[in-house]
Amino acid sequence: MKVPLSLAAAGAIAILAACSGGNAGSPSSPSMVPLSNSPMSSIFDLGCKKTGKLALDPCSVDLSVSNPKATVTAKAPSGSTITFNDKDCTSKSIATITGDDGTYAVVAGTAKGKCTAKFTAKIGKTVEGTAVLDVSNKV
């Protein structure tokens, strides 16, 4: 007696079959697309709020007594000017952000809480991208 295969089971089998190859995931395998060039690579950025060609690393910082300062790197197209607005954080005394040229220091303020800072990359008057930094202060 044959048992019909459900769609979920068929998908699981297909995934297992694709993963079972000895060197199928190696970069030299012509049948595999590197994850960084794949549309699936953006799945790892799901927690980051951004548009266009600006990325923050990390895009979320947790400040605490043992970690009152964090460094954030902004990556944008060559020739971009990056600015940020941290009024949400400074107005609540949660954190301050300083820096330029793509490297920024996030320093805990005197108040506990959460806030966001918006970064913008422009070339001339053209916005190349925006990104949001989520800050949590537990100091």
| H and E order | HEEEEEHEEEE
Mean pLDDT: 78
- CATH topology name of the largest domain: Immunoglobulin-like
Low-confidence stretches: 1-45
> Biggest sheet, open or closed, and with what strands and sense?
5 strands, mixed
What overall form do the CA principal axes indicate? elongated
What is the rounded Rg?
21 Å
Please tally the β strands and state the result. Answer: 9
Proper CATH architecture of the largest domain: Sandwich
Q: Would you tell me the structural class of the helices and strands?
A: mainly beta
Strand content: 35-45%
CATH class descriptor name of the largest domain: Mainly Beta
Estimated helix fraction? 10-25%
Oligomeric nature of the chains: single chain
Count of domain modules: 2
Characterization of this structure:
This protein has helices at residues 7-19, 87-91, and strands at 49-52, 55-57, 60-63, 69-75, 81-85, 95-100, 103-108, 113-123, 126-137. The protein is mainly beta and 139 residues long. It folds into 2 domains: 7-40, no CATH class; 46-137, Immunoglobulin-like, CATH 2.60.40.1080. The longest helix has 13 residues, at 7-19.
Summarize it.
This protein is mostly beta strands and 139 residues long. It is 13% helix and 42% strand. The chain has helices at residues 7-19, 87-91, and strands spanning 49-52, 55-57, 60-63, 69-75, 81-85, 95-100, 103-108, 113-123, 126-137.
Key words describing this protein structure:
single chain; 139 residues; Immunoglobulin-like; five-stranded mixed beta sheet; four-stranded antiparallel beta sheet; elongated; disordered N terminus
